[in-house]
């Protein structure tokens, strides 16, 4: 019984070789069917003889043009002379701080999600400014913010809208 299994395994292990040889034979047969195909010369020479290897010729032309450009003398462009003082002044201008108003505008821009706004509104209406209670409420605080995160979100909400939602009474 054990011997049969080993024989079957050996037969299975060689099957891939036979199928591969069949594929090679098919391509060789197809090449033999092409009129003007010569087995004794290389693949590229056969394509050249049949007029099919234009891509190779185009690549050769491109490489020849690149070689000619490399061999050509390099041309230099004259530039204006700039003093060190001018360079330092340009650096100062590039690294100069923005006016104070623009900095404040950028700081005041708060990016809040609609969901964040909804959650903060609900939490503030229910708990006012009790951050620990906000942290524990898992129904309204769906994002599970910590007490500090709740406080920051509340401050961002006030920066954006200028007022807080009215708490329930």
UniProtKB/TrEMBL annotation:
Belongs to the NOP16 family. It comes from Paramecium octaurelia. The keyword Nucleus applies. Residues 1-26 have a biased composition (Basic residues). Signal peptide: none annotated. GO terms for biological process: ribosomal large subunit biogenesis. PANTHER family: HSPC111 PROTEIN-RELATED (PTHR13243), NUCLEOLAR PROTEIN 16 (PTHR13243:SF1). Residues 1-28 are annotated as: Disordered. It comes from the Eukaryota. This is Nucleolar protein 16. Keywords: Nucleus.
